[in-house]
Specification:
Strand order of the largest sheet: 3-2-1-4-5-7-6
Order of helices and strands: HEHEHEHHEHEEE
Number of domains: 1
Helix content: 25-40%
Low-confidence stretches: none
Number of helices: 6
Distance between the termini: 32 Å
CATH architecture: 3-Layer(aba) Sandwich
CATH topology: Rossmann fold
Strand content: 15-25%
Oligomer: single chain
Structural class: alpha/beta
CATH class: Alpha Beta
């Protein structure tokens, strides 16, 4: 897997073999960032935004945001293996506009997400969207854009729009 665009374009994102995360496909990452840059309904500027990659896994989404000029990227994952692999990669790049955390978002996420303008959430597919709606959504800053990757049909009054792929959906929500 490679970073698609920006200052880190072409760099290989390290992934762990035999691990349980699902790196977001290049096509989906490209679509997400094209929408962030060009869709007026989303009303965000990546270059002025703090981008939270809250279930980062390999970090591919957050790395893409960092490469494309996000003001700052906050990476978070529960897995120490994922975090250590990401830390090793980040040491090799000339950018230090990031933070790395290893915390349970649903129990200790308030400090990580309060400052974010854009949040990308790709929790394990067995997570209940209501956990997000009840525990995280109230903590978001006003006007925060949430990009939620899932395999469920979800309805929400905060949904701006969604994009469907073969076995997943990308939801764009606004607080």
């Amino acid at each position: 897997m490679r970073i698609i665009s920006g200052t880190l374009k072409g760099r290989i994102v390290p992934t762990l073999k035999n691990h349980d995360y699902r790196p977001t496909l290049s096509r989906i990452r490209e679509d997400v960032f094209n929408l962030i840059h060009h869709n007026r309904d989303l009303d965000v500027e990546l270059e002025k935004s703090i981008f939270g990659d809250l279930f980062c896994g390999s970090g591919s989404i957050g790395l893409e945001a960092l490469s494309r000029g996000a003001k700052k990227v906050i990476f978070n994952d529960l897995s120490s293996q994922n975090i250590n692999t990401l830390k090793t990669f980040l040491k090799s790049i000339p950018n230090n506009n990031y933070e790395i955390h290893q915390t349970d978002i649903f129990q200790n996420g308030n400090l990580l997400i309060e400052s974010c303008n854009i949040i990308y959430m790709d929790p394990p597919y067995n997570y209940d969207f209501n956990l997000f709606r009840e525990n995280i959504f109230p903590l978001l800053s006003n006007n925060c854009l949430v990009i939620y990757e899932c395999n469920q049909n979800i309805t929400s009054e905060n949904l701006i729009f969604s994009k469907n792929y073969k076995n997943k959906k990308i939801l764009f929500l606004r607080k």
